[in-house]
Amino acid sequence: MKISKSFKIYIHIICVFLISKNVLADNDFSENIVIYEKPKVIKELKFKDLNLQEIDLTNKKGNIMILNFWATWCAPCRREMPSLEKLTHEFPEIKVYAINMEKPNKLKAQDFFKFIGVLSLDIYFDPELKLVKQFKMRGLPTSILIDKKGKEFGRIVGEIDFTDKNFIKLLKKYI
Fold this sequence. Notes:
Elements: H1 5-25, E1 33-40, E2 46-48, E3 54-56, E4 65-70, H2 75-90, E5 95-100, H3 106-116, E6 123-125, H4 130-134, E7 142-146, E8 152-157, H5 165-172
Parallel strand pairs: 4-5, 5-6
Antiparallel strand pairs: 1-8, 2-3, 4-7, 7-8
């Protein structure tokens, strides 16, 4: 039985597609992540803690930081937050700041964390939305990745699994 040339080409195309799909499946997380060639200077990094006391990390250096912006009404925020908490247990040298983007409501934010089973992350607020404007954020969740020198080296726009092996591999380059 002779196989036609077009059938061989068709089979070849399908094989290439299936192989590339499997290779890309390992990198699905990366469609939400932007890593900058040159880290960006952060002018000011101020927000409020749970008691509305100012936190100023403008000149903070020495640790990788993740600023995770979220809201109680945000379903993707709800889904990704437990993996963010798990990341802090696996890598205590990474400082995570979970910054709520709603009008500060201590009880509502605490109840939200309890509801989703996040018990060890601290809650912060950006009541004037200064960081939203400064980082030109377009949606939630958004996470800003800050290197040990205090510069933004990347950001995550949308939901990811913070325990994804490829994300961990990326973070380890900066630890």
